[in-house]
Amino acid sequence: MIKNLQALWNNLLPIQAYSWQSFFWTSLFSLVMAGLLTPIPRFILFCLAALFFIISMTWLCLKNNVPLTPWITSALICLALFLLVNIPSQALILLWLPLAGTIAAYPCFFDKFCHFHAPTIIERQKLVILLGTQILLSCLLQVNFLMQNWLDQYPSLLVDDFSRSVFVVKWQVTPRIDPQGLLLLDTMGELLQRTLGGKNWTETGEWLRGAVHPRENEEQSDSLGALRQEAIAKLENRLNPLAEYPFWAITIQVSEQPNLYLVTLLADWTGPRSERSREQNPYLCEMICQVEPSIQGVSTNCQRARRNSLPPG
Amino acid sequence: MAHLIPFPLILLQSLTLLISIAIEAIIYQSKLNLSHKRSVEFSISMNLLSAIFLWAVFSIFLSFAPDPIKMRFMSYLLFSNLYDLNSFQANLSFLLMFLFLFMFVCLIEFKGLDILQALLLSSPDSSDSEQFLVNRINKALLKTDVSKASVIVLANICSNSVILLILLFKILPTYD
């Protein structure tokens, strides 16, 4: 152990001024000095430290003929940009491969003493293919990010069946994924309790009839639609706004019994879906609420929303 | 937690690239009188170039497209169906899109081949080569060689027919 550390230390000691070790120690020195300064000079010293570190590591890799050195250097540059300038990680991952290709092309344009020379014809052809493959790989990474962004905006799509998809495969870590419809129904249940809590039994009956048949009752607005909008607004305040909420259609079924209304709220997905999901609807969610008269007025008890595997009736 | 990984898409892209590189290289070799090695190199470069352009256009288009069109692309990429369209509309949009893509790829490959030839074929005059290179690229961009264009259209028709056939075999089982 001590021998290894000693060997490492001996390796890190600069043998001559023009060596990778000098750059390494300069970067370390810049880092230490940066800690003692005010923000703006500190940032400049951090940048210099990153620059010297990247130069020293590239030099080390080149000296030991490490394969894929341009890709390592490019990754280090991207990491430095991420830590220093806070550029989004997705943009930097997309930059990584084309930048590596450009770095790999450097020896074709410049000699050891940084003198420019035009690449030979054989080199030009290799450069076109090298840069082409790197940019194409970057494009494919971009498609991957595009899909992740879609899933961020439409997370409920993950409950769907992707076994017949031509272009993607689903990689599932957790055993169970719930659609956002459950959250929407739970929020609507809370709002329903609050709305009906302030009414008497007759008004409750009218409200429920207005929710089931919004068009027959022109004077009242669509009470279910209003409740849905309110629930979406509440969810958007509490969580990140999602683009998928407008695609959730809510339907209500009310069965009237003596001194009791059984209210069933159903949430179904109207957005893009697989053909298979039309048979066994994995999106459909339902919640049952029991509305009955009480001493305070009307009491509403809602169960938690749950997935319904039955096709919509 | 779950992720969607476009692994089949990457495989499909690699497969179509390999097929079109092979087929187009054979046609370039026989029709443009290029050497075996050069025709393969040209074919690789052309196909990479057109694939990059297609992906770039796709990304730019999606960032500007209205929401209903975005949803259709999303639906097609994720579930292989077109959201909110009947089968006639869907087939018509496929046909139009395929024709547009075919013409776009032909155009890119045609100009790409001209530029690549200007860039890679050795010039007799080696002095003042940079100035000469810029002139050659300018000339390549402006002139239109009908016979070369017809070779590229022919090469693309052949490669795209084979790719379409393979795609059909891949996509057909998804129709119930």
From TrEMBL, chain A:
<feature type="transmembrane region" description="Helical">
    <location>
        <begin position="12"/>
        <end position="37"/>
    </location>
</feature>
<dbReference type="InterPro" id="IPR020360">
    <property type="entry name" value="Uncharacterised_alr2393"/>
</dbReference>
<keyword id="KW-0812">Transmembrane</keyword>
<keyword id="KW-1133">Transmembrane helix</keyword>
<feature type="transmembrane region" description="Helical">
    <location>
        <begin position="93"/>
        <end position="115"/>
    </location>
</feature>
<feature type="transmembrane region" description="Helical">
    <location>
        <begin position="127"/>
        <end position="147"/>
    </location>
</feature>
<feature type="transmembrane region" description="Helical">
    <location>
        <begin position="43"/>
        <end position="62"/>
    </location>
</feature>
<keyword id="KW-0472">Membrane</keyword>
<protein>
    <submittedName>
        <fullName>DUF5357 domain-containing protein</fullName>
    </submittedName>
</protein>
<dbReference type="Pfam" id="PF17310">
    <property type="entry name" value="DUF5357"/>
</dbReference>
<feature type="transmembrane region" description="Helical">
    <location>
        <begin position="69"/>
        <end position="87"/>
    </location>
</feature>
Automatic annotation (TrEMBL), chain B:
<dbReference type="Pfam" id="PF24301">
    <property type="entry name" value="FraC"/>
</dbReference>
<feature type="transmembrane region" description="Helical">
    <location>
        <begin position="86"/>
        <end position="108"/>
    </location>
</feature>
<feature type="transmembrane region" description="Helical">
    <location>
        <begin position="48"/>
        <end position="66"/>
    </location>
</feature>
<feature type="transmembrane region" description="Helical">
    <location>
        <begin position="6"/>
        <end position="27"/>
    </location>
</feature>
<keyword id="KW-1133">Transmembrane helix</keyword>
<dbReference type="InterPro" id="IPR054663">
    <property type="entry name" value="FraC"/>
</dbReference>
<protein>
    <recommendedName>
        <fullName>Filament integrity protein</fullName>
    </recommendedName>
</protein>
<keyword id="KW-0812">Transmembrane</keyword>
<feature type="transmembrane region" description="Helical">
    <location>
        <begin position="149"/>
        <end position="172"/>
    </location>
</feature>
<keyword id="KW-0472">Membrane</keyword>
